[in-house]
Design goal:
The chain has helices spanning 2-37, 57-64, 66-97, 104-116, 119-130, 136-142, 158-183, 188-195, 200-228, 232-237, 249-258, 263-289; strands at 40-41, 52-53. It has 295 residues and is mainly α. The longest helix is centred in the N-terminal third of the chain and has 36 residues, at 2-37.
Length: 295
Amino acid sequence: MAYIRKRNRSIFLIFLLPAILVLFLTTIYPMLYAGYLSFRSYDLAKPFVPRVFVGLSNYQNVLTTGDFLHALKITFQLMAITLSIQLFIGVGLALLVTQRLPGMSIARTLLLIPMMISPVIVGLVWLFLYFPELGYLNYFLSYIGIGPISWITSPDWALWAIAIADIWQWTPFIMMGTAAALTSLSPEPYEAAKIDGNTRWQVFRYVTLPQLKPVLVSLLFLRAIDAFKIYDIIFVLTKGGPGDSTEVLSLYIYRQSFTFWQMGVGAAASFVSLIIIVVLITFFFKSLNRDPMQS
């Protein structure tokens, strides 16, 4: 028996080794190397110049420069806009598509299509819609008396243009998760609420929402992590412009690393971003494990 257990353990390790190797080469080693670069002065334009150890100066440069703080501010602004609207519309759509109405199965399928499209394609689609003169969006707005809007060339509208595209793509994610949770809720509390004479709004507020809270928190957490890393749509639509009005944290890291060629500063900014994500994850698990009676 001992021989069989030892042989099974060896077979298990042999099959596990390729996965560990791929994980190391694609995730662990790049992270360790980025950590190494974050403490070095590394100009990508001078690859053969020795990478001098500079201590925490790269982190100091990141945390004290106005560009990083501005990018962080834009990132959280975009997250606040998109997540709040996605939650509101997503829950509303979930309540609609879970009704036993004709055509709801087809509607659910059609509503999920945006989520299946690549973010780059989504950016290109909305780029055509946002064109000042030739875009369909301004064309239809002209019929209701609204003049052409500079969606992606105006600092006042560019962030909203990105938010609209992101909301269009990812609201189905909230809808899908919420709809799945709604179909699994226990019917007993609804029967009791109906006997007590509660209105639909009271049933939704005091019966449905408390039961959906863990699911909604989880969905918002997943979307927040993804929204914090948003890059594709912004790069296609505005490339961080006009000016720096839509330069989010991921675009700031890209520019530091591959436009200004300061790989050390870019690596330091990446680790600061990682720390922020870890804080978000910690906050999520604390809120999820909190006793509902205390909230």
